[in-house]
Amino acid sequence: MRFVGNRALxxxxxxxxxxxxxxxLASDYVSGRGEAEGLTTSRWWWEIVxxxxxxxAAFIWFTHIEKVKxxxxxxxLFSALxxxxxxxxxxxxxxIALAGILLDWFKTGPSMQELNATFYVCLAVWGLSWLxxxxxxxxxxxxxxxxxxxxMGRWYYILIGISPMVLAVLLTIVETMRxxxxxxxxxxxxxxxxxxxxxxxxxxxxxxxxxxxx
Length: 214
Known about the structure:
Blueprint: H1 7-32, H2 43-70, H3 74-90, H4 92-103, H5 105-108, H6 112-141, H7 148-151, H8 155-177, H9 183-204
Helix pairs in contact: 1-2, 1-9, 2-3, 3-6, 8-9
């Protein structure tokens, strides 16, 4: 994907900010072990989170909107999916806050089962969003499309491109095997760092002649 100027950096910044917020939120929930405490019941914390959500949503919007306007055909659908999936991703803290209201997490905190369910739902939505965009691009180009860091064919691009996700998976496996739960703290940031990778790589590519190109 290619964006106007360095707008891709805004998308990367949004992902990293949300990753930090979610890791801090998870840390508070995990340390409480079913009893909300600290940040999760603090009014100032949620005011900061909600303001950061507005900022991150704006970053994603400005990253993608020109591309959406300039695209036609299947590229328009692809760009719209990028925008939508980006907005859904950066607004996850809001979805968690709404779930907290419904499930009374502000008083009792989530159980480990609820944390597990939240974790897997977020992963499933992320995976389905990526699959939808990949499917649209493959159909539009009428060929199998590799992720950009794989298409470059250089081992260091591949390593950089998947390293946050690999590290998150390894930490999750290790913590699960030892009966720990610290992966809930590290994994959100690492997965969102993985989400920032395409934006960072897009910001480093030279401009293309056509606004229609990806």
